């Protein structure tokens, strides 16, 4: 019979690296919340990379049409900060 490794959330948080080493060795770890299984940590069989990291869709259009005044660029204001500020007003 296969040995099942179980761990409660608090112990997992405290000894996370130890359980990752266990998973890297090929074991599966079942995470328990009040003695109830809530997750399983398993080794990744194949790592997939993103085909493209460029923005697509309406977000890409917004980024390419967003005009930042030269004065703001000179003061070192980041475009993402401006975008988040503008969206926060909605």
Second-tier CATH architecture of the largest domain = 3-Layer(aba) Sandwich
CATH topology description of the largest domain: YefM-like fold
> Distance N terminus to C terminus?
58 Å
Q: How many separate structural domains?
A: 2
By DSSP, the count of extended strands is 3
> C-alpha Rg, in Å?
23 Å
Q: Low-confidence spans: pLDDT under 50, at least 5 residues? A: none
The topology string of helices and strands comes to: EHHEEHHH
Percent helix, as a range, is 40-55%
Helix- and strand-based class? alpha+beta
Biggest sheet details? 3 strands, mixed
Describe the structure in your own words.
The protein has 90 residues and is α+β, with helices and mostly antiparallel strands. The protein has 2 domains: 5-41, 3-Layer(aba) Sandwich (YefM-like fold); 57-88, no CATH class. The chain has 5 helices and 3 strands. The protein has helices at 9-14, 16-24, 57-65, 70-74, 79-88; strands at 5-8, 29-33, 36-41. A 3-stranded mixed beta sheet has the order 1-2-3. The longest helix is centred in the last third of the chain and has 10 residues, at 79-88. The relative contact order is 0.10. The model has no long low-confidence stretch (mean pLDDT 76).
Set out the fold topology.
Elements: E1 5-8, H1 9-14, H2 16-24, E2 29-33, E3 36-41, H3 57-65, H4 70-74, H5 79-88
Parallel strand pairs: 1-2
Antiparallel strand pairs: 2-3
Any key phrases for this structure?
alpha+beta, YefM-like fold, 3-stranded mixed β-sheet, 43% helix, elongated
